[in-house]
Amino acid sequence: MVADDRGSVIVDAGQSPAHARQIQAAIRDTGLPPARRLVYTHHHWDHVWGACAWPEVEVIGHVAGRELLEAEAARPWSHRYLRDEVRANPRLGPSFRARALAMEGWEDFAVVPPHTTFTDELTLPGGVRLRHVGGGHAPDSTVVLVPDSGVALLGDCFYPPPFHLRGPDDGLDVAMLHDLLDDDYQWYVDSHGEPTTLTQARHLLSG
Question: What is the CATH number of the domain that holds 113?
């Protein structure tokens, strides 16, 4: 999250309502300003399935993600549905089994498409910048830039496509990562790795 006295920005919603509630409890326990906006870095389930636990928050995402999430919202999500889908397409196994483990129940669950969308860039009150980068992992991939802290939150933008869509030649988008490095940002944080400094990132890419 990006803490702001006028209302904080949450970057991605958590992978389930239970996960989102853990984040909310941590915010309360540390006395950070409550969330006012929730930004999706992209539409994949582990980044958006907690959004229904943030009912009073404006959800913001790239326009390419809205139609995808509207289609996801129409699916009859349940443990049985997940099992049936994996039987029909075993390549969905890693993703759909992880979803089943994340979800305690489905009674109050809903996929939430963004309320507000943008195309290329959007600057939020307080100066947080959203920039669409797309790429092979997800068409709506967005980076979240925090200029006054020198932090770039990358989501999964340079990752290969999800397993069920991945081809034998798909890998990390190193060219995209090169392009994202900027002297104005000293910290780079992707969704599933450790934070990296600009110097470390350049060293890794040069090696």
Answer: 3.60.15.10
Is the distance from CB of 194 to CB of 169 less than 8 angstroms? no
Which residues, in sequence order, are CB contacts of 171 under 8 Å at separation 6+? 160
121-130 core/surface letters (b: 16 or more CB in 10 A; e: else) = ebebebebeb
Q: Could you give the angle at the alpha carbon of 47 between the alpha carbons of 63 and 52, nearest 5°? A: 85
Among 125, 133, 135, which residue's Cα sits nearest to residue 153?
A: 133
DSSP secondary structure letter of residue 165: G
Cα gap 128→182, rounded to integer Å: 16
- If DSSP codes are grouped into helix, strand and coil, which group holds residue 142? strand
What pLDDT score was predicted for residue 206? 87
Pull the structure tokens for residue 126: 């307080």
**DSSP 8-state assignment for residue 15:** S
Q: Cα-flanking dihedrals φ and ψ of residue 83, to 5°?
A: -60, -45
Structural domain of residue 59, as residue ranges? 8-206
Using the predicted structure, report yes or no on whether residue 207 has a pLDDT greater than 80: no
